[in-house]
Amino acid sequence: MNSQASKQIRKFPYIATVLLVIGVGVLVSLGMWQLQRLEWKQNILQSIAVEQFVNAQEVQLDASIIEDAAGDQYPYKRGYVDGVFVSSDPVFIGPRTHDGNVGFHAILPFRFVDGSAIFVNLGWIEDKDNLRPVYRRLVRLQGHVKDGRGVSRFVPQNTPETDNWFRADVNDLALHYGIDAPLPLIFYSEVPGLMGGVLPHDPKVEINNNHLQYAIFWFIMAAVMIAVYVLRFFWFKSS
Fold first, then answer.
1. Taken in order 4, 10, 13, 18, is the CA torsion positive or negative?
2. Does 222 fall in a domain?
3. Rounded to 5 degrees, what are φ and ψ at 23?
């Protein structure tokens, strides 16, 4: 009996068991991390949903409000701004799609009455040549502010010297227009007809929230790993 027990002990899959514990631990940790991300994303979506019902005609977005919003996890505020466009020569960020068509976002610098500057994303246009200039006079714009850098890391960097713009980077835009200390967010105009040929932005913001699916995937992988371990080292041997 002692010899048989010793033989069974020697055959116990110690290495496989250690690897199983490590692998399952990693997979479960990934699943728990995705659940934490899910809670974080749901809080962001809830705050955005509340903000989207704000009447943009009644809330003024001054420099202090925009600077405070820049510190949020996902900056998003609706309202209006008063000021003047300081250029009529827009930068075209692209490619950007709308209803399956490829075009550009047109961006211009805008200065508030108090002297603060922000970059305004006027909207989408398919053909740059169809753009009619905006008037450089005091105007009120309705829309929302958010971070314009929300693009994939695979998107190329801007090359202003060749007039190729791929992302709404505030620092690059400031250098291009010679604007000192602009506000850190981009204002997305919801005003139709502001500039001829441009389609304004929709206040609705779509953010992917697939963290629950990712969490389920990692937990399933952990269960599969345990099942393979049991089948390989215990089920088949006992049968």
1. positive
2. no
3. -65, -45
Domain that holds residue 185: 56-189
CB of 150 closer than 8 Å to CB of 75: no
Is residue 43, in this structure, part of any structural domain at all? no
Q: Is residue 122 part of a domain?
A: yes
H or E element that contains 21? helix 14-52
Q: Please compute Rg for the chain using Cα positions.
A: 27
Is 89 part of any domain?
A: yes
Token pair, residue 215, equals 């969490």
Looking at the structure of the chain, the number of domains it has is 1
> What is the model's pLDDT at position 87?
87
Neighbours of 184 (CB within 10 A): 18
Interacting residues of 57 by C-beta distance below 8 A, sequence separation 6+: 80, 142
Q: What is the pLDDT of residues 182-205, one digit of tens each?
A: 999 999 999 887 777 789 998 887
Is the pTM higher than 0.90?
A: no
Q: Which residue has the tokens 């977005």?
A: 61
Please report how many Cα atoms fall inside a 13 Å half-sphere around the Cα of residue 30, on the Cβ side: 16
Write the DSSP string, 84-151. EES-S--EEEEEEEETTEEEEEEEEEEEETTS-EEEEEEEEES-GGG--PPP-S-EEEEEEEE-TT-S
